[in-house]
């Protein structure tokens, strides 16, 4: 049976080529116009039928119900507790019990209605970042709508007439509300998909927080000394891995609602193309190759690649301080300092004292020491070859042969001879003699 | 003449009977009883130039506790031994008061023609008034002896209080010195780390110098504390009368009294117990009796009778009585009486003033004690535990590399500072206790947890 999708695909191809032949270049629509210039409401798109559902690691998709052909969603804005990583539970603000809020997943052409109930102690609104809609639905408090006061419910209604990766976030007291974790992703699948089919589609919200270690509430007044960085409000070792089958085309979408920092997200083992922003899909000839995609504050980026090499691939922000958890700043620098006798001298006054940092700061996560409760300083996670001395915006892409389920497959079993190994001094001398 | 002589002799005999019961030992053991009753401590009368009592040596072994220090002071303080002689002086006056005036023998001899001639006169005169006045004079001197006993008791108490105060001050100064030394060690550790950081090229000269400077200042302050310690040690040593033997103190921790006594009750006790007040009372008795004498004998202050023998021609001797009696025409003792009355009234007014002052001292020192207890309780409940918690939480953050070693050392220094404040607070409390004892006139058993028996002074 011919599916609607296949029909649409073939129709689009024919229509597109006909257009090009029949008109001069100057008459082509300018770059960046949406593919559906009118507000035609189409039949609501269905998961697995009209699109491959998005995967929000450590998150969820916002459910909807159909009411007279309109997809109806309910966002409840409320205080939320979130475990960023084992040992750190944070008092945040979010949507529907989560931060980031559940991913809104729709299809281009869906007419949607959003009920927003405010259970915060202050007013809020929801702004649909990058979405083309009537001005009054834009969600800017004071400018396009009145505040949604505490306890009240507002409704937004419009038709999505574009596709790509977008975000939603408050537009009242943003500094506080976004610092507290109020943000979420919007994924709009195209009505007429173009380009190669994507087999696995992931979405991430990038965030940064200042949580004074031992406390449980983010400090929204901090402007540059952030100390916890998250992927979908999780810090490694709390981040779930991305599990894909070897050979699949993988898309990963990033949105960055950090207060101040852009993030260069780096993937080991692959070269990918940047295929979209919140301005729209990037034409194939314009897609540029990267191994790190810089996601500026207030932007989204989509990348795609074929997962053709099996293994456990590190996938992380390349800013070195963004892959550490809650380290102190401004400590005295003891690197390279002579330490003999110091411990004895100071232990007379402070019996639990131990000199740290003289040989670098690696391996601190593995030491069993009395530290403030509800903090994850310098934590890493356990790996198959030892501790993984990373935190924050770090996760693992696990590529496996022939898997049928996307449950965490455990650590990659390397083929013999394909792991970096230690050699003896004798071997070194033999090779480099002379 | 034989009759007169017999009469004179019997009067002399009368005079002699009064002094046999007033021995040094009797008086001193009275004093010992009084001191024991008020303080619970023993005093002893020792000979000069004796060797240091072996008991003192025993007390010194292992360091002096507060109790032992008091005992050593009572045995060994030369000033106190000197004060005991006030009893001797008063005893002498009492003996004196019980003795009759010696009769006076006068002789006028004329030599005439190779032998004793006419006009030779022999007289034996006895002042009679003294016989009549004797009992009264003895009473007056007895009152003064009682007064002296209380004066000595007051000196004993003063020595005990001064010794205790000096002991507490020294005890605390030693603790504070130990804390300040640790404080200096913390600065030293910071300076050492800074030095090594500079060596490794991690910090600037300015930062190193800054740390060396605070270390130097701390060392200097410690030297000043050492100096104070020497002075306080000398002060106690002086009271203990120790100048040749080495000595140390072995103090026990000062503990707070469980309850505060009632001011009214203490005032009453003070009025019955303060030796200064009791001394004044006996002095008033003495002055009253003296006034009695002056009033009773104002018309007849002196009266002498005697026998005289006068030689006549040849060997004839003519005896006869003689009598000396002042005639109160001009001086009827008015001056003496006015003086006596004024002295008596003065003493009475001073006694009243003294009583009021004593009550005031009791109230003031009790209030100071209450404040000191409150402060010490506050230190124990809040200051000390919080400062320790600050170190613990800083250590936790240090362990997590959230804060550095300098911050950690600083938190330790804050804890040491709090301990110093606490030690000084306890000292102030202990000194306030001693001042209260001084005001009430007694001794509370030492402020050490295990030795808290029933309080003797209250």
Secondary-structure blueprint of this entry?
The complex is a heterodimer of chains A (434) and B (458).
Chain A (H helix, E strand, L loop, with lengths): L3 H19 L42 E3 L2 E16 L2 E8 L5 E7 L3 E8 L8 E3 L23 E7 L4 E6 L4 H6 L4 E6 L10 E10 L18 E4 L10 E4 L3 E8 L6 E5 L4 E6 L2 E2 L6 E3 L1 E4 L4 E7 L4 E7 L24 H6 L33 E3 L2 E3 L5 E7 L24 H8 L2
Parallel strand pairs in A: 2-5, 4-9, 10-13, 12-23
Antiparallel strand pairs in A: 1-2, 2-3, 5-7, 6-8, 8-9, 10-11, 13-19, 14-18, 14-20, 15-16, 15-17, 15-19, 20-23, 21-22
Chain B lengths: L1 H16 L6 H16 L14 H7 L5 H11 L1 H20 L6 E5 L2 E2 L2 E2 L4 E7 L1 H71 L5 H36 L22 H11 L1 H22 L7 E8 L5 E8 L9 H66 L5 H36 L18
Antiparallel strand pairs in B: 1-4, 2-3, 4-5, 5-6
Helix pairs in contact in B: 2-6, 3-4, 4-6, 5-6, 6-7, 6-9, 6-11, 8-10, 9-10, 10-11
Short synopsis of the structure:
The complex is a heterodimer of chains A (434) and B (458). Chain A has 434 residues and is mainly beta.
Please report the total strand number of chain B as a whole number. 6
**Largest interface, chains and sizes:** A-B, 36 and 31 residues
Which outline of chain A best applies? globular
The number of helical segments of chain A is 4
For the terminal residues of chain B, how far apart are their CA atoms?
A: 65 Å
Evaluate the radius of gyration of chain B: 35 Å
Q: How is the biggest beta sheet of chain B arranged?
A: 4 strands, antiparallel
Helix content of chain A: under 10%
Helix-strand sequence of chain A: HEEEEEEEEHEEEEEEEEEEEEHEEEH
Q: Give me the strand/helix succession of chain B.
A: HHHHHEEEEHHHHEEHH
Helix content range of chain B: 55-70%
Show unreliable segments of chain A: 7-38
Structural class of chain B: alpha+beta
Spatial order of the strands in the main sheet of chain B? 1-4-5-6
Overall radius of gyration of chain A: 25 Å
Uncertain spans of chain B, ≥5 residues at pLDDT below 50?
A: 446-458
